[in-house]
Design a protein that fits this description.
The chain has 308 residues and is mostly helical. The chain is 72% helix and 4% strand. It folds into two domains: 92 residues, no CATH class; 207 residues, no CATH class. The chain has 14 helices and two strands, in the order αββααααααααααααα. It is globular and about 80 Å long.
């Protein structure tokens, strides 16, 4: 019975805290088993404004169509309806972020253990890199505070980094910040970039974080396809110029994302014409050429059959 009472009190306290975030409750006290709640005189549009402000503070630059739709209709809502609707949107938002935050944290733990030798030195280093707030952390935090997301600003800062120490610090700091901002495309790109500049970086980790970055930019931050094309094109061009060893993985990832088609075609054409080009890219280019040839033959056969 006591356990049930404690759980009920805890649920009630969480509900009151959410109402405080929405500006409905000013303060509350717990006296014995009773909650004394001080309400605020507030209007439906003010509740909507509080919700939008909280979402913007939690994930600057992100877009939530359901929150925007609620805010647009709030002025015509009764107060009870506005409180209920705002609370629902707030709960969905909070748990959406919490779930992804837990996933990010669990993945970083898995990756750290996966890459650790039996002696455990690498695991200790990964934990220290994660916990240490180095010189890179303030830069990432400042970028996170921007009200409008832009890949270029992240690229300019990350381009200043190189070498093992910078790579370790970037990997640890970006992973830590992703625990509270799991959907930010810039942070996800930073986590991916750390694997590129590390001499022993994991290309699968690079790819998964790059894909997560682009998908979040598309779905949550309203980044246009043209801007994503330009971003992917810049990454490909830069890595090709640096003769990046994992170029094939990058090209394939960009192709699967449906971006920078012209740039990837140009790279594959150069690969086919250059004997000492990255072998993986040459194989990828040959496979794509064979696939295109097969499609052309199927189309030709289908046209001939239809014409006959």
């Amino acid at each position: 019975m006591a356990k049930g009472s404690n759980e009920e009190a805890s649920n009630r306290e969480r509900a009151i805290y959410r109402l405080m975030l929405l500006g409905v409750v000013e303060d509350y006290l717990v006296e014995s088993s009773k909650f004394v709640v001080n309400l605020v005189s507030i209007s439906s549009p003010e509740i909507a404004d509080a919700l939008v402000d909280f979402v913007n503070r939690s994930n600057p630059g992100s877009q939530r169509s359901s929150v925007d739709a609620f805010a647009a209709q709030a002025s015509s809502m009764e107060l009870r309806e506005a409180v209920s609707g705002a609370a629902r949107e707030l709960i969905i938002f909070i748990y959406d972020v919490i779930v992804e935050s837990r996933r990010r944290s669990l993945r970083e733990m898995y990756v750290a253990v996966r890459d650790t030798a039996p002696e455990g030195d690498e695991l200790r280093d990964r934990v220290l890199d994660y916990l240490t707030r180095g010189d890179i952390s303030p830069v990432l935090e400042e970028l996170l505070e921007s009200s409008e997301f832009d890949y270029m600003s992240w690229e300019q800062e990350l381009a200043k980094l190189e070498g093992v120490e910078d790579a370790r610090e970037l990997r640890g700091n970006s992973a830590r910040l992703l625990a509270s901002s799991p959907f930010n495309p810039g942070l996800l790109f930073a986590r991916a970039y750390s694997e590129i500049i590390h001499p022993e970086g994991d290309l699968q980790d690079f790819r998964s974080n790059l894909e997560a970055s682009v998908n979040s930019a598309r779905e949550r931050f309203g980044v246009s396809e043209s801007a994503l094309d330009e971003f992917a094109g810049r990454i490909l061009t830069s890595l090709e110029t640096d003769s990046f060893d994992g170029m094939a993985e990058v090209v394939d990832a960009v192709e699967q994302l449906g971006l920078a088609t012209e740039t990837t075609q140009q790279i594959e054409e150069r690969a086919m014409k250059t004997p000492d080009y990255d072998l993986g890219v040459r194989v990828l280019a040959l496979a794509n050429s064979m696939r295109q040839l097969t499609n052309d033959l199927d189309s030709a056969i289908g046209s001939a059959t239809h014409g006959g």
